[in-house]
Design brief:
Helix content is about 40%, strand content about 20%. With about 290 residues, it is α/β, with parallel strands linked by helices. Bound molecules: S-adenosylmethionine.
Length: about 290
């Protein structure tokens, strides 16, 4: 290879060194992720291209990505996408990056909807990128999907995701379930902000400095949005309807207490994430 010309292997090695020198965690996987994005292949597919010399445009794009990664910007924002439930979700700073634990929530919602005949009405509250609503619309096309968020930027991104996936979701800018009629929804599903305000400042820099504060901050005890959401869900759900919510890994007791003591819910399950921590609470709306 002529001097000064770098193949993908050299580019990846240099990128990795630069990120490690900048103190960035998980440098090898982030570098590989960028390369996969530029090559249009999967993470393993990158290995097949190591000996190739990338086009100048790809080298330029790779360098630009490195500059952003060196600031600890999340790789999903840098490449503009992530994988959620096996589909591509566009990501940028307008909304939280979809997390693997949220796939557990979608799994619970999907199982409930499969047993619900007709056209169940689903409200995805705090929709962000729209990942939950889009995944459910894809899996259960007969359902009617409503999705709400306070943030106009997040809703614009969510609409873009629904269009790209060819699914039908009604996006609504509102506070939680404001404006949704009483007893009109069969399933309320939500991943609300649940980090205590003080803890937001202690999150890793890659989260704290880049993901929207509105998506994270759950108030002084982390339960402020959750408490309001539980009340609102009780209002809009039909008798026998379901409420499914993602919670923080230390919030199981508090969430159960909110659900049991003040509202007409019967707890169904607490489901764990892939690391075995209780992360999804599901409850049934009792008869009115
Ligand atoms: C934790 S993120 C979840 C995003 C997405 N559902 C996911 O699972 O990746 C929470 C979202 O709630 C929105 N949000 C915060 N407070 C809200 C409120 N009072 N009403 C509606 N949406 C709200 C934020 O804008 C953010 O998009």
């Amino acid at each position: 290879m002529p001097e000064g010309v770098r193949n993908w292997e050299a580019l990846l090695a240099q990128g990795r060194t630069r990120l490690e020198q900048a103190g960035i965690d998980e440098a090898p996987i982030k570098i590989r992720w960028v390369a996969a994005h530029l090559l249009g292949c999967g993470l393993l597919g990158v290995l097949r291209h190591l000996a190739e010399v990338p086009a100048p445009g790809a080298v330029h794009a790779f360098e630009a990505a490195l500059v952003r990664l060196e600031t600890d910007e999340p790789v999903q924002y840098v490449i503009g996408e992530t994988d959620f439930m096996g589909v591509r979700i566009h990501c940028d700073a307008r909304a939280l990056i979809p997390r693997p634990e949220t796939e557990v929530l979608v799994g619970c919602a999907e199982a409930f909807l499969r047993d619900r005949p007709g056209t169940p009405v689903v409200a995805d509250v705090c929709t962000g990128t729209g990942c939950i609503a889009c995944a459910l619309a894809q899996r259960i096309p007969r359902a009617r999907l409503l999705a709400t968020d306070l943030s106009p930027g997040a809703l614009a991104l969510a609409r873009q995701n629904a269009r790209a996936l060819g699914v039908s979701v009604e996006f609504i800018q509102t506070d939680l379930l404001d404006g949704i009629a009483e007893a009109s929804v069969d399933l309320v599903v939500s991943n609300p902000p649940y980090v205590a305000t003080a803890a937001c400042g202690r999150l890793p820099r890659t989260v704290r400095d880049f993901e929207p504060r509105l998506a994270l901050d759950g108030g002084s005890d982390g339960l402020r949005v959750i408490s309001r959401l539980v009340e609102e869900a009780a209002r809009v759900l039909t008798s026998g309807g379901r409420f499914m919510m993602e919670i923080g890994d230390d919030q199981a007791d508090a969430a159960l207490e909110i659900l049991c003591t003040t509202t007409p819910f019967k707890i169904q399950t607490l489901r764990s994430d892939f690391a075995g921590r209780a992360r999804v609470a599901t409850a049934e709306r009792t008869k009115r």
